[in-house]
Structure to design on (422 residues):
């Protein structure tokens, strides 16, 4: 089996779980005997491009001529069975779907965000969830609010790209939805059920877990949608030292907020941006990993890394987080509904949780509110040892490379080359 994996890498200065997943998936497929032909571009290439190439950058999200030429040559020479697309922006363009189809090559795409509809890809603006562009022929709100790279011009280009390529996205032969929530997003976009397969990501097996450490670890981009400010608000509601140590790893626009908190309280430690060895050490030093996302986070890689290391997770009940943890909706006071998008419990059992906290196979979920997260912190600390074994078991059962790679190969095997399209 011969597969082209197409991906525009995000800038290395902005660490990306998607880059990590693509690299891991290529390695796992290769180890399973699949011939992988990487078709990779990187946004880090842009500064060193020629003036002529840079002149074409504004149109590249719609149509990237150099990428289409190079891909066409690759497809002609190697005649792959499938093209598997991840991120096409900005140097590949969704046009790679049309190029593959012109060569009779079926296309699989893994959906890592909401960019079929949302110019920023995350359904989040000005500190709150936003779906103003949903259902619109052209995402005018994205232009008005400068949602893409804080630029009206670039937002207009991205909104136009999404409008131009609506038919392109609906021609993809098979979508890989990382969770059932993404499958619902695709159905709402008009993709029929038979072209959607739910398959999560995986991370390499780090081996049997070490004994739990102490305290909590937050490891994500330090930006508003990832909720580090929410976490710090919740943490400050407890006396210094009452919950052990809060370790924070990552970088981003909210770094000064984190540095200020670390200077203010001895139980907050800022670790900076970590390499792979540093990530492993930080996970092992902690008892619970926190995913405090404020947006419908699709499938945070940090959660899978935590489960692989036998660390339970405390997360907000948004996006794919409840799915990852096998968690039920938080127990709400009478007269209120569950936190948005929390899923039904997968398994369950154990002691009753305090109101507002959902218990899952591998952790806890709460509403994305400071009071709710503050209330859950001592519950998670006290219950970490009781869920550590279950966290590792959930990884082995659902997110281990052996399990996930077989699912992906089965998806490829179900695709067939078609006559060359014109």
């Amino acid at each position: 089996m011969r597969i082209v994996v197409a991906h525009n890498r995000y800038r290395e200065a902005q660490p990306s779980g998607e880059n990590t997943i693509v690299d891991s998936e290529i390695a796992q497929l290769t180890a399973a005997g699949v011939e992988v032909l990487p078709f990779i571009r990187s946004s880090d290439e842009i500064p060193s491009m020629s003036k002529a190439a840079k002149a074409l950058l504004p149109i590249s999200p719609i149509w990237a001529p150099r990428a289409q030429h190079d891909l066409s040559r690759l497809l002609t020479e190697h005649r792959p069975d499938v093209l598997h697309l991840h991120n096409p922006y900005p140097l590949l363009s969704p046009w790679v779907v049309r190029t593959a189809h012109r060569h009779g090559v079926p296309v699989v795409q893994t959906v890592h965000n909401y960019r079929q509809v949302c110019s920023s890809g995350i359904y989040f603006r000005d500190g709150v969830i936003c779906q103003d562009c949903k259902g619109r022929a052209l995402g005018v709100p994205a232009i008005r609010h400068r949602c893409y790279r804080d630029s009206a011009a670039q937002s207009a280009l991205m909104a136009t790209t999404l409008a131009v390529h609506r038919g392109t996205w609906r021609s993809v032969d098979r979508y890989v939805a990382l969770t059932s929530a993404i499958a619902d997003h695709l159905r709402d976009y008009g993709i029929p059920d038979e072209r959607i397969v739910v398959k999560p990501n995986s991370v390499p097996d780090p081996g049997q877990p070490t004994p739990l450490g102490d305290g909590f670890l937050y490891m994500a981009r330090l930006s508003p949608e990832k909720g580090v400010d929410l976490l710090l608000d919740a943490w400050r509601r407890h006396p210094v030292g009452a919950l052990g140590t809060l370790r924070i790893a990552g970088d981003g626009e909210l770094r000064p907020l984190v540095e200020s908190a670390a200077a203010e309280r001895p139980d907050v430690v800022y670790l900076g941006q970590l390499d792979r060895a540093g990530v492993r050490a930080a996970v092992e030093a902690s008892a619970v990993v926190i995913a405090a996302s404020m947006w419908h986070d699709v499938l945070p890689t940090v959660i899978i890394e935590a489960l692989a290391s036998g660390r339970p997770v405390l997360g907000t009940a948004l996006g794919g987080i409840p799915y990852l943890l096998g968690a039920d909706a938080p127990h709400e006071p009478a007269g209120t509904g569950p936190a948005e998008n929390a899923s039904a419990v997968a398994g369950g059992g154990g002691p009753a949780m305090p109101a507002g906290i959902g218990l899952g196979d591998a952790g806890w979920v709460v509403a994305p509110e400071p009071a709710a997260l503050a209330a859950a912190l001592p519950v998670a600390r006290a219950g970490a040892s009781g869920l550590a074994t279950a966290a590792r078991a959930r990884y082995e059962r659902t997110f281990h490379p052996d399990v996930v790679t077989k699912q992906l190969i089965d998806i490829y095997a179900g695709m067939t080359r078609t006559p060359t399209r014109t």
About this structure: The mean pLDDT is 90. The chain is about 35% helix and 15% strand. The two ends are 25 Å apart (CA to CA). The longest strand covers residues 2-9.
